[in-house]
Amino acid sequence: MIAQTFSGYWWRTGEPSDRQPGTLTIASDGAAILQLIGGFDVRQYTSLPGGATSIDEGPSRIAVVHGETTAAKNITLLDCVIQRYSMGFTTPTQQQISARFTLVGIHLDDADTEVFESCHLRVENLRTWATLGKRKFTQEENGRERTATVSAQEPISARFENFTITLDMCAGPFNYSATKDGADVTSRTTATLSITSDVPRSHRGFQEITMGIVDLLTLASNRACGVISQQLVCRPEPEEIPDLVEGKLGGRTVMYKPFADLFARRIVTATPDDREIDFQEFLFTCRDIPFEDLVVRWLTLRKEVVRATNMVFSLHYSKPTFVQTQVLVAAVSAEALSRCLHPPARKKTYKERLLDIAATPPQAIVGKIIPDVEAWANELKSVRNGLAHGLEDQGQNANLFLLLQRTKYLIYLVLMGEIGLSEAILDRAVEANQYLMYLYREQP
To answer: Angle at CA 407, nearest 5°, toward 403 and 411?
Structure first.
């Protein structure tokens, strides 16, 4: 996302008369900072005997701030924190405020207001993974004439709980741009997910589905996939259109849907202009299982295993850390996955949990990344205990990188198998993946 700035006037909800000029900056990672000329006086005044007044700093948090830009665009800032300010004799002279959520295009009086019916979501690598659209190129034998055709398929929908999830592709018109040296003819295609709720929701009401989709693409592409954009759409509202002859309201009434672009600071900053990843690099795609089946299976599974997936996907989402930390996260994720999928009929040891997970995928494929499961379980147990408890005599000679890759991709194989991917697809994922190739072709 490109950083954006909005200049205008800002006020606390319920206090429109206390308007302050300032500029809102939304960074590429979604973080929002409001710089006010002046500011909101949040100090608390208490009358004392004798006519004196005590002044306390007051709260640093403001629940809701409204704004109206110079272009007449409404903005809502939610969960705001006053980071710093300068005081004049009686009022602030400047103030910096951060916001956890920013809604561009609408005013909300409360963060829990349930007015949104759908969410339009764009995520990195969605179009390629979903195998959307067709492109056809032709060329005459003499090379003097060339044609190109871009086709968008019909939208695909799936139902999950109280949501309808629709995958659609937009193929833009061909654009012509010329320079003194040549000319380009291009057409842009994008993929969008529309998540529609049966009941109105707050701005947070689509978060679980959104993160579930992001996790699915992260698993499939084997890399962090960031949210490119997120737009919330309100329920339809009546709007009066002016009479074309007299210019007065009431000419006719139409239903329109107010919408707002949602921004929040994200762990993964999307880079949508980077080169797309090759189709062969995906562990699986919608060619293996249709989208409408795959997304429902994944969201159902994720509800059961979210304690494990939150940890294992953090290895992609968070900034790179020491390999010791990554191994510990993978080790904990493996145990959590076992507990989520196979609640204990009896108390199990940590090693038994590891063997339980290793026994889940087809053993011929497990053997390609972990040739000796018993040795792997003993080594991971030793390293985990040594790191977690500071034991100097455990796991000191282990190849931590190799141990990390084996554990992480075992978890991936388990997840892929649980959503119904066949043994042939799992085997292909191992054979085509450079890290997995290393695991079974370069064994000591």
So the answer is: 170
Are 150 and 135 in contact, with CB atoms under 8 Å apart?
Answer: yes
For the chain, percent of residues with pLDDT exceeding 70: 89
Determine which helix (DSSP H) or strand (DSSP E) holds 431, and give its type and residue range: helix 423-432
Mean pLDDT, residues 337-342 taken together: 92
- How far is 165 from 329, CA to CA, in rounded Å? 32
296-301, Cβ contacts within 8 angstroms, sequence gap of 24 or more: 296/158, 296/159, 296/160, 297/419, 297/420, 298/212, 298/215, 298/216, 298/419, 299/160, 299/209, 299/212, 299/216, 300/160, 301/415, 301/418, 301/419
Amino acid identity for residue 178 in this structure = A
- Cα–Cα distance measured from residue 277 to residue 170, given in angstroms and rounded to the nearest whole number: 20
DSSP state of 272: T
Structure confidence at residue 440 as a pLDDT band (50, 70, 90): low
DSSP alpha helices (H): ranges in 253-399?
291-317, 323-341, 350-358, 363-369, 373-389
In terms of C-beta density within 10 A (0-12 exposed, 13-18 middle, 19 or more buried), how is residue 422 classed?
middle
Give tens-digit pLDDT for 161-200.
999 999 998 877 888 899 989 988 888 888 899 999 999 9
**Assessment of whether the complete model's pTM goes beyond 0.70:** yes
